[in-house]
Design brief:
Blueprint: E1 2-9, E2 13-19, E3 25-32, E4 36-37, E5 44-45, H1 47-68, E6 71-79, E7 85-87, E8 97-98, H2 106-114, H3 118-125, H4 134-144, H5 146-151, E9 154-156, H6 158-166, E10 172-174, H7 175-178, E11 184-185, E12 190-191, H8 193-199, E13 208-210, E14 215-216, H9 220-226, E15 234-239, H10 240-247, E16 255-260, E17 264-270, E18 282-287, E19 290-297, H11 301-311, H12 325-336, E20 347-349, E21 367-369, H13 377-401, E22 408-412, H14 419-429, E23 433-435, H15 441-453, H16 477-496, H17 498-507, E24 514-515, H18 516-523
Parallel strand pairs: 1-6, 6-15, 10-13, 16-22, 22-23
Antiparallel strand pairs: 1-2, 2-3, 4-24, 5-8, 7-9, 11-12, 14-15, 16-17, 17-19, 18-19, 20-21
Helix pairs in contact: 1-6, 2-4, 4-8, 10-15, 11-12, 11-13, 12-13, 13-14, 14-16
Keywords: Kinase, Transferase
Protein name: Gluconokinase
Family: Belongs to the FGGY kinase family.
Length: about 525
């Protein structure tokens, strides 16, 4: 069978799949690596481990394809957005890769927004001015280590790093990743002069921007190790968010895609670069004539995982001996289903990891409001789920304000296995939500874009027919009305406690450097 391999480089793992023409999976693998937190607000990855993971994932999936008797006709790449890594002239990393979750550039972000340039830059680049963006990360380097910033031959991100390991090609990046840097003018299709000045870098330090369907050539050593023909087309691909829309079949007008994993996002596809007047939405490329507009939230399944670690540590239910974290989270969600919508007057601001959309304000922190003695663990968990879903509903409200209609949503990610998550999501959005049966939606999106690039999928909207889905969960009208009445309180509360949170941050002792694994171990 002719298959396409998709390689999806994520924050904690690189996933590889081989997909048949009908979208079914023929092989899959996952290569994990730890997220390092070397100081307060920092989040980094070992760039060599990241690059090697992409090579290993390709070799492993290609090997499985040979065992299946399948023929690999193309390879497509996906990568997460908003990363920065210093590189030498040959594409080798000169330091750690700074991820989207790194918040060290808060001061630089606030300064750019305060002087009035933030919304102008977002309108041109499609990327909100926020500590996540490479623009502000490089501005941090300009303030703190300008000599290194200027002397470093190349500045790139995940895709540039992976391409250096896989592709026999000049220094390049795809349009989709470039559109998420905050440095690229998505209308003029060039590196933005004002953004470059703020970041302290020159255009020649950045990669050549190629269309997302560009064919590259595999490095000969990688092709040999993978047992592939060196002429197998390597499609440069796109960013993970836009590809997730494609991978769940949410490219037709009016259909949104929600990813609900550790973090979350709501996105929909438009036919041209679009800047919203309020500056609440991002706009990233899928192809030259298909663009994804939406908003990402930092907190989703991570909030329930935190609740399990915090509220259920040491708690043993009958028959729960040896229960792992996923099983515990599922049990907590079932327990929370017994609580009525609205959590009996409890409101959660779920900003454990700060927050992004729709406000893009650094420094937001979590809180419970309205807490009373009669509230139990189930109320705290349900309220956390409601808080995350309300944040995604605020993104949907931003769509409405821009005249971008949504009539249905396809959802994917680990959280949508829960009936509670899907029901609350449908009610807060007041839309039918269908769970897409695609466990690796982003990697599948990379496969589908690669098929499009080699001419086997002329119409991207045809991908919707390849994604199996179940029956939609329709919103409960009473719950939808209640959540709509509660939603203004979320924004009012989040803004009202900002000054208190800043003072608490100032007075708090600084945490020790750690890794994601150490955080989990300490919680246990």
């Amino acid at each position: 069978m002719d298959v396409v391999i998709g390689i999806d480089t994520g924050t904690t793992a690189t996933k590889g799949i081989a997909a048949a023409p009908d979208g079914s999976l023929r092989a899959q693998t996952s290569v994990h690596y730890p997220l390092s937190v070397p100081g307060p607000g920092r989040a980094e990855l070992d760039p060599v481990a990241l690059r090697n993971a992409a090579v290993k994932a390709l070799i492993d999936v290609a090997s499985a394809c040979r065992e299946n008797g399948d023929h690999v006709v193309a390879i497509g790449l996906s990568a997460f957005l908003h990363a920065v890594v210093p590189m030498d002239a040959a594409g080798g990393p000169l330091g750690p890769l700074v991820t989207w979750a790194d918040g060290r550039a808060g001061e630089q972000s606030e300064r750019i927004v305060a002087d009035g340039r933030g919304k102008r830059l977002q309108a041109r680049t499609g990327t909100p001015v926020h500590p996540m963006s490479p623009l502000t990360k490089l501005a941090w380097w300009l303030d703190n280590d300008p000599d290194t910033l200027r002397r470093t031959p190349r500045w790139g991100g995940v895709k540039e790093l992976v391409l250096a390991g896989l592709a026999d090609a000049p220094y390049s990046v795809d349009l989709s990743i470039a559109s998420g840097t905050g440095l690229y003018d998505i209308h003029e299709r060039r590196w933005d002069p004002e953004a470059l000045e703020l970041a302290g870098v020159r255009a020649e330090q950045l990669a050549e921007v190629l269309t997302t369907t560009t064919r590259l050539r595999l490095r000969s050593d990688v092709a040999q190790a993978a047992g592939l023909d060196p002429a197998t087309p390597l499609i440069i691909g796109a960013a993970d968010g836009p590809l997730a829309n494609l991978g769940v079949g949410a490219t037709p007008a009016g259909v949104g895609a929600i990813s609900l994993g550790t973090s979350g996002a709501l996105r929909t596809v438009v036919d041209r670069p679009t800047a919203d007047k309020a500056g609440r939405l991002f706009c990233y490329a899928l192809t030259e004539d298909r663009w994804v507009i939406g908003g990402a939230v930092n907190n989703a399944g991570s909030v329930v995982r935190w609740a399990g670690q915090s509220f259920a540590a040491g708690f043993e239910r009958p028959g729960a001996e040896g229960e792992d974290a996923d099983e515990r989270d599922a049990a907590l969600l079932v327990e929370a289903q017994g609580v009525a919508a609205g959590s009996e007057g409890l409101l959660c601001l779920p900003y454990l990891l700060g927050e992004r959309a729709p406000w893009w304000r650094p420094g937001l922190r979590g809180a419970y409001l309205g807490l009373r003695r009669e509230h139990a663990r189930a109320h705290l968990v349900r309220s956390a789920v409601e808080g995350v879903c309300q944040q995604l509903a605020l993104v949907k409200d931003s769509f409405t304000a821009e005249g971008i209609p949504l009539s249905a949503v396809r959802a994917t990610g680990g959280a949508v296995a829960s009936e509670l998550w899907v029901g609350v999501l449908a009610a807060t959005l007041d839309l039918p939500v269908t769970v897409a049966d695609t466990p690796e939606g982003t990697a599948l999106g990379a496969c589908l874009l690669a098929r499009h690039a080699i001419g086997e999928l002329p119409d991207l909207d045809a991908a919707a027919a390849l994604v199996p889905i179940g029956e939609p969960t329709r919103p409960d009208p009473r719950n939808a009305e209640l959540y709509a009445r509660l939603r203004p309180l979320v924004e009012t509360s989040a803004l009202a406690v900002q000054d208190v949170v800043k003072e608490l941050d100032r007075l708090a002792p600084q945490p020790l450097p750690t890794t994601e694994k150490a955080v989990s171990d300490r919680a246990r």
